[in-house]
Every structure is written in C-alpha cells, then in structure tokens.
Amino acid sequence: MVTGAAQPQPESATTAATVSPAEPHRGASATRRGSRVVVVGGGPGGYEAALVARQLGSDVTLVERRGVGGAAVLTDVVPSKTLIATAEWLTLVESADELGIRIAGSATPAGAPTPDVEPAVFDVDLGAVNERVRALAEQQSNDIAGRLEREGIRIIHGTGRLSAPDTVVAEERTPGSGPGREHRLDADVVLVSTGVSPRVLPTAVPDGERILTWTQVYNLTAMPERLVVVGSGVTGAEFAGAFAALGADVVLVSSRDRVLPGNDADAAELIEDVFCRRGMTVMANSRAVSATRHGDEVVVELQDGRSVTGSHCLMAVGGVPNTAGLGLHDAGVELTPSGHVLVDRVSRTTTRGIYAAGDVTGVFPLASVAATQGRVAMWHALGDAVSPLDTSRVPATVFTSPEIATVGIGEAEAAARGARVVTVPLPRNPRAKMLDVREGFIKLIAREGDGTILGGVVVGPRASELIYPITLAVANRRTADQLANSMTIYPSLSGSIAEAARQLHEPLHS
Prior knowledge:
By secondary structure, the chain is of the alpha/beta class. It has 13 helices and 24 strands. Residues 394-501 form the Pyridine nucleotide-disulphide oxidoreductase dimerisation domain.
C-alpha cells in the first residue's frame, strides 16, 4: 500500500537529508572511475543502479537469486499489470451495447421477436492468459539481462551476503541444483535491493493451489469459481477487480471501513461503488483471522465469528522485507522497527559505502521509486551530481478499472494547509462521452494566493498516463494558471485537467 509517511533518516545522514530536493549536489568525492560496485538484488533498484555505475566507469557485479528484473518483473508488477490489462478488455465490453456494437450473430433485426436464448459471452481461458503473462515476464527479464551484459555488467545467478562492509560473498546457484561456486567480491560500494516477500499469516499458510499469495496466482489454469481476496489495499483491490472482470465471483474482505483506505476518499468510494455494481461482494470492517483448505474449498474465518467460503483465497496482506541472511547487522546496517533497511534521501544506509534501494527500504513500494533510489545511490556514491529523492513528488497508480492516479498532497492535508481543491467530473468531458466513460474525475489542489499546484488525483481510463502533466506541475512548482494556459487537444481527456486548472484561477483585484 502506498503511504505518504516520511522515511526516518539515519543520524549520520543529516546533511544529505536536509539538501533542497531541487538543488543538485555532488557526492563527497569526485567521480571514481574503476570503482568496484556490487549490487545484491536485480530488481528495478538494482539493475538501474548497475547501469548508472557502469556508465560512470565502475566495475559492476550484480547478484540476483531468481532472475534479472527481480519480483517486479517476474512475479509482481509486470505479470499483475499484464493480467489486469487482459481483464480491462472485458470491462470495455460493458459499453458495447451503448455504442451500438453487437456480437456477430447475436443481433435481433428490428421488429423481430426477441429470441429466448442467452446472449453470447466471452469465455476466458485463464490457463492461456497466465501462460502469456509468464512468457511476457520472462521475455522482459531476458531483455533486461541482455542490456546489462551488453554494457559489460557481470551477472551472478545466486544469493549474496555481506561478510564485511566492503565484501560480498555470492553463492552461485543453478535452478534445480544445489549450491555452486562461491565468489568473494571486494567492493568500494555495495547496493542492497532485495525487495520484499508476501506476508504469510501462520493461520493462513499458502499451498499454491487454493490458498495463494500474489506471486502464485499466475499458476492457475482454471478460473476460480469463487475467489475470496483478503486485504483491500492496492494489491487486493487490483486483483479483486481483475478477477471480477475476468468472470470470477469475487468476495473482497476488508479490515477497514472501505477499500483502498490509504487512498483519496472520493476515489476509493467510487471504486467500491464500481466493484459492487459489477457484482463483487465487499465486506467492510471484516478482519480475517484464518484461511483453511477443505478439499476443493477454502474457509476464511473472520474475527467476529462469521466465515466466508470460496474455491480459492488470495492473501494480500502486505509484504516482509528480504533482509534475513544478508549480513546487514554484522556490517552495522541499521533496520527500522518494521525490518526495512534505514536509508536517507540519497539511499545511504548507516554504514559508509553501503546503500539500499527499493521495497526493502520501505520508502515507497513502487518500481519507479526503486529505480530512482538505485540511480540516486550510484550518482551519490560515485561523486556525480544528484538530487535527493523527494517523495512528495512521486506519482502513484492503483490499476483498477477505472484507474486511480495521485501525486503530491491529498485533500486531507490540503484542508489543513488551507489549500484550494477543485474537482471536475470526467463523464462530462466530450472525449469521455465518445468513449462512454461513466465514472471518474480530475481533482487539483493548489496553494491559496499564488496558485502553485500541490497535488492532484485522476480517476478514469489511463489515469496512469493522465497524471503526468500534474506531476510535472507539482515537481516544477507550476501554477494553476500556467497549467490552464497550456493548450490541450480537443477533444481529449486531458482537457479536463486544464478545465480544473481554470477553475482555480484567482482574478486580479483592483
């Protein structure tokens, strides 16, 4: 789940943490060509860091235990968004009748009696869907590995651990076989980017068949008859929406009073309404305490004594940082109370020369943030110009249908700061009408007085794309007037962003 909480700063990193986010600064030393860099973990934070370090002339070794790209490419972001993109095609079918589109052979001629048969529907072959999902993820992993190798980066397939602050021991492993050769890697700079693993409750242990984590759903070959999703954060909401669109009967169990409790309240309310309209059962204020398999059924017990039965259960209850066995404690690297690696805004840990990036730091569980942290770490470690990470400018998307995209401050903080908020409904946009978009809105938040854009929310199709101009405005401290005066295409969904900006205009007073 994406949160806006500030990451605690190591005491040794006070200077870097107080540098203005917009002010590039240079690391403690000039660029050190020929430095030895070892990256442990090949996800977005790791492989982006490796590319930057190689660009700056370092000798780079990347250690990855599963496959280049890490969980983000193989079991998380790429496969989940591929599955969701497939499901999105079926949500578009909702508008077919309204747009005058009929399935071939199913249309009834004008004046003819209505046939007493069920209308044609799409049949989803989940096995074929997941086969494509896995193949695409593998292809992406191979593409990234090929890029790294072309750049001269050494890849060791195996596990890595710190035996000293400047030494990584990598144990090479071949899939399907035992431990292989051990490598002792001396390093001037070490980056840890090992990600997280799905949190497992002792009373709901996944079996990979009926009780599943988010990494295991891509092994399903048949559509669940009834899928119980435990957890209503980003992961739970995305999978619940996707499987409902694919045709499964879905029950979403939420321990909170609404879905997406960490997101914009208006956006979350809209998504919950859409879920219910599409036939999903949403159980609010219902904390799951266990999930038990009984043959071909799974029974989910709730804290209040009720139970929910389904054919499958997806546990989406957060992640646990992969820090065990890395030798971090012996190397003097401090962890947060949640077990994440403590870093500052240039990705330094509490031990000189050791950096960390990605979900293992707990800063923001986003691939884009992981990649940025990895790049920032190498720019800083190798003495290049760098701007510290500013989490207030990070855009985030929930890939439900419609999508929710946010950047900057939210409406609750806007109220506390006396900022102005304008919301424009998306269905009244001419392009939205052409596309039969029935839900969504654009929300802009601007500072009182000078009109500086402080945040925004987009709910609608391709919100992940539409948030970009608002992100540019937030990142570059642009005003509502500047946003409004930039021309948009007519008709376009982005026209509603300009409309919202125009509503934030404050007339000059004589």
